[in-house]
Amino acid sequence: MDAYGSPSGHLDLRGLTKNSFEESTKKSSSFGFTSPPLIPGLLRCLRDVVGPNAKPTAIQSLSIQHILSPDSTTDSQPRWKQFLLAAETGSGKSIAYLLPVLQSLKQTEKSSSVSSPQSTRKENPRALILAPTHELSRQLSGFAKDLLHEAKLKVVCASRANLPTRSTEASKRGTSREMKMAFDDESGATEMDVKPAAPTTRQADIFVGTPTKILEMVKGRGWDRTEDDIEDQDLSLEEKERRRWKLGLGRWKAEPEMGLANVEWVVVDEADVLFDPDFQETTRLLLSEISAARGQTIALTPEPSLWSFDSSETEPSDKTVEVINYPFNFILTSATIPNSLSNYLERHHPSMQRLVSPKIHRLPTTLQTEYVDWSGGNKLADIEKRIRQVWAEDSVSPGAAGGVPKLSKVLIFCNKGKKVEALSEYLEEKGIKTVWLTGSGSNRLKGSNRHLEGFLKERPGRSDVEEDEDENVEAESDGAPTDPNDPKTTPHVMITTSLLSRGLDFSPDLKNVFIVDEPRNLIDFLHRAGRSARAGQRGRVVVFGKYEGRGSERARTIRRRVAELGK
Ligand SMILES: Nc1ncnc2c1ncn2[C@@H]1O[C@H](COP(=O)(O)OP(=O)(O)OP(=O)(O)O)[C@@H](O)[C@H]1O
Q1: Fewer CB under 10 Å: which end of the chain, C or N?
Q2: Is 335 in the pocket of ligand 1 (CB under 6 A)?
Q3: pLDDT tens digits, residue range 472-482?
Q4: pLDDT per residue over 494-547, tens digit each?
Q5: Which residue's alpha carbon is at the smallest distance from atom 22 of ligand 1?
Q6: Where does the record place Basic and acidic residues bias (predicted)?
Q7: Three state DSSP letters for 112-125
Q8: Residue 270 falls in which region: left (phi positive, over 0), alpha (psi -120 to 50) or beta
Q9: What are phi and psi of 423, to 5 degrees?
Q10: 503 C-beta closer than 6 A to ligand 1
Q11: Residue 252: how many CA atoms within 13 Å on its side-chain side?
């Protein structure tokens, strides 16, 4: 069966029953964000972030009700909680896990082992939030900071940017490895180094980062590299030394910076990616390192071939349950639960509580889907034509409050980096300024989200640009004056691969997502389309394909499957 054969072949709903959702929504009119009560500082910041009239979304109601509630354990040993938060894109899952984690950290601040007198490491966080990309880590740490202005917990983003060499290698593997290519650059060397804390600087309570970067802080930069990584290559001595420096080898090897003994909470955001075949080894290694640091050994057994998106391989031959009980609170979250992840959880975390929105694996109801038939001529010209139609619609749409109508932003997903670059070049020639980003491109900025400026949702009272200044990240600027509403001078079009399809919260100005290549499967489609129509905003996904005449069967099958996601 192919990737579009059946949504349920790839999106696993086992155990994702309505659970306590109906119960929680019945209560939600009086429940709000107030019961169980949030600490006042957190509540005030939350109001600033989501607005004074906001109600919790379904997944937030569930998380507040179940994760925040006091533990009923009576014995002296803490009972560590395990939760899966599963809800559609743009439904507020970040806040759903941040609220209970931040509140718990604040409430146990004094009583916890945070001082860790035995640790000699510079950082000894109490919570880790893991994400697959530097960009998402950066945005999530920003969300957490927004909620913590008053609660005074310290959050640090520990991600890294691009590694051209690995990404280039990965790109050769082609479309089926697109996700791997997109995320592979997290293991690169052109990293943002976390500035070591000065002796008087307060240690961070929470680190947000990719598993690779966190592991590097725990084990020391270069821990997973050997001279073999450069020895085989025909390089000059100077180039070899440069590679050593990039990889953290030899005299460039760094001391471990982070201790894990204090970690009480671990959140795995985009869990289906971080437990997929390409990431799971690193993710599970980090989880077992945390356990070991907290005095409990967890064996790292290899997984059977659970990890394929191919539905024929999703049933494990050996269904033996090997329960893992990590000695910390463990939250996984995702908008899509493939069979592989569901099987993994059944096998290793059978008592994990699954909190699920009833709209999981559905497109947002505020998202309109449109299908555009290729003209049979130049496909790049077809895309340009549809972009200009979007702006023509904007220019006559009401709601511009008497001023110049604001043109909306367009996010375009291609499958391959080369196509991304070709489309960008074409549109630029036609006078449309673009931002293009691929896993192997050098235009992702180290430790910053400036390359996404104007496209990500702005944070109240604080922009990512200001945030970048904290990190001393230089942004490129040609100094030319730009009109923020002119698509010739200010980018209104971003072109990328699946790299940016995961988790990022784009601006409500981004109303249109164009999918110009066939997504690998429905999971990929849901995440790409879900960059628009977030938090109840209206949006549109435009799916290009050959829907008429000979050779149109595949596109029409996709169209039928996508229509089922919208029901
Ligand atoms: N209760 C709420 N009311 C209004 N807006 C909210 C609420 N909760 C969250 N939001 C806003 O919704 C947007 C989407 O939130 P978030 O990025 O956490 O979604 P998500 O479920 O993680 O999506 P994805 O699956 O794509 O990662 C954010 O801009 C957030 O500020």
Answers
A1: C
A2: yes
A3: 444 455 556 67
A4: 999 988 899 999 999 999 999 999 888 999 999 999 999 999 999 999 999 999
A5: 93
A6: 450-464
A7: CCCCCCCCCCCECC
A8: left
A9: -65, -40
A10: yes
A11: 15
Q: 90 alpha carbon to ligand 1 midpoint, in Å?
A: 5
Per-residue CA distances from 284 to 179, 263, 287, 326, 549 (Å): 19, 15, 5, 11, 48
Closest CA to 503 of 530, 540, 535: 530
95 CA: nearest ligand 1 atom: 18
Please report the atom of ligand 1 found closest to the CA of residue 535. Answer: 12
Q: Are 462 and 439 in contact (CB under 8 A)?
A: no
pLDDT of 424 > 90? The answer is yes
Find the 333 Cα to ligand 1 centroid distance in Å: 13
Select the more confidently predicted residue: 37 or 114.
Answer: 37
Could you report the per-residue pLDDT of 321-347, keeping only the tens digit for each? 789 999 999 999 999 999 889 999 999
94 CA distance to ligand 1 middle (Å): 7
CA nearest neighbour of 50 among 67, 33, 26, 27: 33
- Residue that the structure tokens 């000065």 belong to: 198
- pLDDT the model gives residue 180: 44
Range scoring the smallest mean pLDDT among 2-16, 67-81, 131-145: 2-16
CB-ligand 1 contact for 57 (6 Å cutoff): yes
> Which residues sit opposite 541 in a β-bridge?
369, 513
User: Could you tell me which residues are beta bridge partners of residue 83?
Assistant: 331, 353
Which one-letter amino acid corresponds to residue 184? Answer: D
Please tell me if the CB atom of residue 457 comes closer than 6 angstroms to any atom of ligand 1. Answer: yes
CA distance 24 to 46: 20
Q: Is 92 in the pocket of ligand 1 (CB under 6 A)?
A: yes
Task: Give the position, in ligand 1's atom list, of the atom nearest the Cα of 530.
Answer: 26
H-helix or E-strand spanning residue 200: none
Q: How far, in Å, is the centroid of ligand 1 from the Cα of 323? A: 32
3-state DSSP helix/strand/coil % of the chain, to nearest 5:
35, 10, 50
Q: Is the pLDDT of residue 173 over 60?
A: no
Check if the interface score ipTM surpasses 0.90. Answer: yes
d(CA 371, CA 306): 34
Of residues 547 and 10, the one with the higher pLDDT is: 547
User: Can you tell me which atom of ligand 1 is nearest the CA of 56?
Assistant: 1
Residue type, 513: V
Tokens of 307: 């990890």
Do you find a cis peptide bond into 36, omega within 30 degrees of 0? yes
**110 Cα to the center of ligand 1, angstroms:** 31
Among 11, 43, 50, residue to substitute to test ligand 1 (most atoms within 8 Å of Cβ):
50
Residues in the chain: 567
Q: 489: CA distance to ligand 1 center in Å?
A: 30
Going from the Cα of 53 to the center of ligand 1, the distance in angstroms, rounded, reads 15
Straight-line distance from the first to the last Cα atom of the chain, in angstroms, rounded to the nearest whole number: 22
Nearest atom of ligand 1 to the alpha carbon of 88: 25
Distances (CA, A) of 107 to 36, 101, 268, 365, 490: 14, 10, 22, 37, 45
507 lines ligand 1 (CB under 6 A): no
Note whether 517 and 545 are within 8 A (CB). no
Confidence of residue 432 (pLDDT cuts 50, 70, 90): very high
